[in-house]
Amino acid sequence: CRPCTALIPCRQQQRWRRGYRRPISTSTSPRRSSHGAATAQVKPPSRRLSAYASNPERRGDARNPRPRGSSAEAQPGSGGGRRREPLRRGAVSARLPVPDHIRRPPYVGTAAVPEVCPDRQVHDGESIMRMLDACELAARVLHHAGAMVKPSVTTDEIDRAVHQMIVDAGAYPSPLGYGGFPKSVCTSVNECTCHGIPDSRELQDGDIINIDVTVYLNGYHGDTSRTYLCGEVDDATKQLVKVTEECMMRGISACRHGASFKEIGQRISEHAEKYGYGIDPFVGHGVGRMFHCEPIIWHTYDYEPGFMVAGQTFTVEPTLSMGSTQCVVWDDGWTAVAADGSLSAQFEHTVLVTGDGAEVLTGFP
């Protein structure tokens, strides 16, 4: 759909609101930045405007950005007081092949973004075992990819390693071909909030990188991500990464049969605000036979109705920012970066709701 600025969301914006995490450009006349990015702003879903974006002092809205997580001034190109160059794209290599015998998700072969499934899947014993297999593989692949993070390694090298490990296990890399996404993993470096496309850029000393792995195995998706430190990272950035992981685990601690979905965002928000971090407007989602389905998991204070049911699987994946939670989208249609160039970090687990809590299916080795 064409970008719009109306408060009533268009169909594409509604799709994003219902769980699809690709940000939607809402400016009618984007301008170009020095590295070829479209600087159209990404707004939270319209029903969230009053709760999320109307209080810039509390939320760190781009209309009134403020320093977060450090006493140092938060400026573009700075992470907790450390000067760095803005993220620039490298060359994107050709899409990697997948052997014919490997089962593909239904969306492969189409350029359209899949509709988010409205069903809230409740798994039986057999499907839980399949989810465990997919999630265990995703966790192993992520651990392998994280071990590669060091200065001079390219995100394209990480993508190749992830791709090979997944297909060697007889699985399909879920991002590959999803709505035209060209790679097998998302690699989001520094101010890239999410959906970074692996390319020829070399990781540099002091970078942070989120690696987001999803695999499709035996008809089920397992989804997980983690933010890694590259080389010598300053203390303010280490704190951002540490608190982000703590927020994820606090959100997961709210999960149990009969609990309100609102509790997840409340616990995450309370912890993030202690450190002055913003929470970027990207959501978790149901996952299983479908890559993205209900329920939608908000990581901020929210008004989403509904209660958890034992047997449900979904992701909890907060993204915290040192500065503005407003994003811009590069002209590749995927790469979302912080509008003010501030650092962000994300962690993600797939969890299974049980009667008295939640089981983390993608536990980090």
Automatic annotation (TrEMBL):
Reactions catalysed: Release of N-terminal amino acids, preferentially methionine, from peptides and arylamides
Cofactor note: Binds 2 divalent metal cations per subunit. Has a high-affinity and a low affinity metal-binding site. The true nature of the physiological cofactor is under debate. The enzyme is active with cobalt, zinc, manganese or divalent iron ions. Most likely, methionine aminopeptidases function as mononuclear Fe(2+)-metalloproteases under physiological conditions, and the catalytically relevant metal-binding site has been assigned to the histidine-containing high-affinity site.
UniProt keyword terms in alphabetical order: Aminopeptidase, Hydrolase, Metal-binding, Protease
GO biological-process terms attached to the record: proteolysis
Binding site for a divalent metal cation 1: 212, 223, 348
Name of protein: Methionine aminopeptidase
One Pfam family cited in the UniProt record for this chain: Peptidase_M24
Keyword field contains Nuclease: no
Gene3D superfamilies assigned to the protein according to its UniProt record, in alphabetical order: Creatinase/methionine aminopeptidase superfamily
Biased composition (Low complexity): 22-31
Cofactor(s) annotated in UniProt: Co(2+); Zn(2+); Mn(2+); Fe(2+)
Family affiliation: Belongs to the peptidase M24A family. Methionine aminopeptidase type 1 subfamily.
Gene that produces this protein: LOC100272473
Domain Peptidase M24: residue ranges: 131-354
